[in-house]
Amino acid sequence: MKKVQLNYFLSLVVVLILGILSRKISGIPLFIGDMLYAILIYFGCRFLFTNYNKSTSLLLALLFCFGIEFFQLVQMDWLITIRKTTLGRYILGQGFLWTDLLCYLIGALIAYYIDLFLSSRINQMNN
After folding, report:
1. How is 2-51 classified by DSSP, letter by letter?
2. What pLDDT is attached to residue 95?
3. Which residues of the chain fall short of a pLDDT of 50?
4. Spatial CA neighbour of 12 closest among 51, 38, 32
5. Alpha-helical regions (H) of 49-97
6. Residue 23 lies inside a defined structural domain of this protein
7. Are 111 and 61 in contact (CB under 8 A)?
8. pLDDT digits (tens, 9 = 90+) for 102-126
9. What is the rounded distance in angstroms from the CA atom of residue 26 to the CA atom of residue 115?
10. Which residue from 108, 41, 96 is spatially nearest to 69, judged by alpha carbons?
11. How far apart are CA 121 and CA 12, in angstroms?
């Protein structure tokens, strides 16, 4: 595993832990978890597709998050059964909300700009 890929993997794990904690600790607004979900997906895209540029990863993350959100409009019995499990609820969500789309956009943009900032800092240190 390349160093860059390892950094994205570690970022992914940290955000995953924060996302789970955001759902377990009362008092943390639900929208924080939605933003963390998008951040997780962005870093997942960066980890899996290291050859893609950052803006492509941003687009892929948004398409994935929006796709999952719109998929929540599908109400088949077997899908509802999966959504009732903990893992199914974390991955597929439970119900469509327009506000979740805004949270995903904000979260993905936060991850994108953090990635740009850290990449530029690393490039400065290497020069």
Report:
1. -HHHHHHHHHHHHHHHHHHHHHHSTTS-HHHHHHHHHHHHHHHHHHH-TT
2. 85
3. none
4. 38
5. 54-71, 77-83, 86-92
6. yes
7. yes
8. 999 999 999 999 999 998 887 778 7
9. 29
10. 96
11. 20
Is residue 66 within 8 Å of 27, Cβ to Cβ? Answer: no
Q: Total domain count for the chain?
A: 1
Single pTM value for the model:
0.90
Domain extent, residue 105, equals: 3-70+98-126
* Predicted local confidence at residue 92, as pLDDT: 86
> Whose structure tokens read 């607004």?
29
Q: Is residue 31 part of a domain?
A: yes
Residues 16 and 40: their CA atoms lie apart, in Å, by 6
* Structure confidence at residue 45 (pLDDT): 97
Confidence (pLDDT) at 43: 97
Q: Provide the 8-state DSSP code for 84.
A: T
Is 58 a domain residue? yes
Confidence at residue 40, expressed as pLDDT on a 0 to 100 scale = 97
81 lies in some domain? no
Residue 123, pLDDT score: 75
Q: What pLDDT score was predicted for residue 61?
A: 98
DSSP class of 85: S
